[in-house]
Amino acid sequence: xxxxxxxxxxxxxxxxxxxxxxxxxxxxxxxxxxxxxxxxxxxxxxxxxxxxxxxxxxxxxxxxxxxxxxxxxxxxxxxxxxxxxxxxxxxxxxxxxxxxxxxxxxxxxxxxxxxxxxxxxxxxxxxxxxxxxxxxxxxxxxxxxxxxxxxxxxxxxxxxxxxxxxxxxxxxxxxxxxxxxxxxxxxxxxxxxxxxxxxxxxxxxxxxxxxxxxxxxxxxxxxxxxxxxxxxxxxxxxxxxxxxxxxxxxxxxxxxxxxxxxxxxxxxxxxxxxxxxxxxxxxxxxxxxx
Amino acid sequence: xxxxxxxxxxxxxxxxxxxxxxxxxxxxxxxxxxxxxxxxxxxxxxxxxxxxxxxxxxxxxxxxxxxxxxxxxxxxxxxxxxxxxxxxxxxxxxxxxxxxxxxxxxxxxxxxxxxxxxxxxxxxxxxxxxxxxxx
Lengths: 290, 135
What we know:
The complex is a heterodimer.
Chain A: H1 5-11, H2 13-26, H3 37-54, H4 69-85, H5 89-110, H6 114-157, E1 162-165, E2 168-174, H7 179-196, E3 200-207, H8 213-229, E4 232-236, H9 240-249, E5 257-258, H10 262-272, E6 276-279, E7 286-289
Parallel strand pairs in A: 2-3, 3-4, 4-5
Antiparallel strand pairs in A: 1-2, 6-7
Chain B: E1 6-9, E2 12-16, H1 23-40, E3 44-48, H2 57-72, E4 76-80, H3 84-92, E5 101-103, H4 106-123, H5 125-134
Parallel strand pairs in B: 2-3, 3-4, 4-5
Antiparallel strand pairs in B: 1-2
Protein name (chain A): RsbT co-antagonist protein RsbR
Domain STAS (chain A): 158-269
Organism (chain A): Mucilaginibacter auburnensis
């Protein structure tokens, strides 16, 4: 006669939770620095409740069944929040794995027939394995989201458009220029040109470690786009090594105004805007005159 | 049928494109501008595309063509007010619009046209005098 697993679990629900909690708390790797025991208990209880109410003899082999949607949802929520809190995959995995131990333990106590116990344990084991995999998947997804967000933030932060003077924008680029970043650089530069009505943009590449043909192509694109907007683009901060690579790669930058330093680019910009910087004799201040 | 107005402003023609150009409209505009340049003897064409948000390779080529054609009729073309997205698209399409001047806005475009023409007059002063005598 088949054992009614639903009944067994319902009857022992609180015992199961206790056992699971003991299992989890006994683990030496428990991260009570990241999460308090009370929180852990609340999470565990929620999961046990929904699992016990979802499980039945018929869906035991079918983890894809809609009955487990809520369980998977809770698991997903838990693993994503753990990924954000900085738990390791092992710790997250053990969270679910220890539930399996508790469940099997419980079955061992309740089911006396050896054959019955064997098949039931197998099936419960498979079901929990499926949940573990689902947990891992969401855990990794959560981590990837965190990484993606950070990448975006870094791209945003690392390409500030600075108004160095009325009509002159500077854009120091720090780090490697790939297609995605060039896009961000280009967009933020062009938008800023429109907003400020600047007619000169200085692209400073002193923070770019290497310039290969692809990076050069990206730079050329940015310069052309700036020109289409009606502004001039100066590339500054070309280090000697970069000048060498550019020539060795046969990249033609002759159509572009290039300067060695941001200072000389700024000087050029002042000149083309017909601004003059000079030292005022009385006092040590600088003044710009039209 | 739609038609894009071409206004005369002294020596220059002012074209403000306020709708997204479709192919037929762009072709008509090209023909109209060339005819107008010829008729009025304009020295410059200023095209304001600040309201254009969508651009394709065809339109990019038309703008380039207008520049080249006007140049043949001794008029310079300045395109002003390009949206960042449009500029990026054109660059990605490989259409840097060589032969067309660009400026940020109508004001700056007018200044640019004036300075180009001023330069022309300065360098070709003697030629102009000869023409006057011939007339």
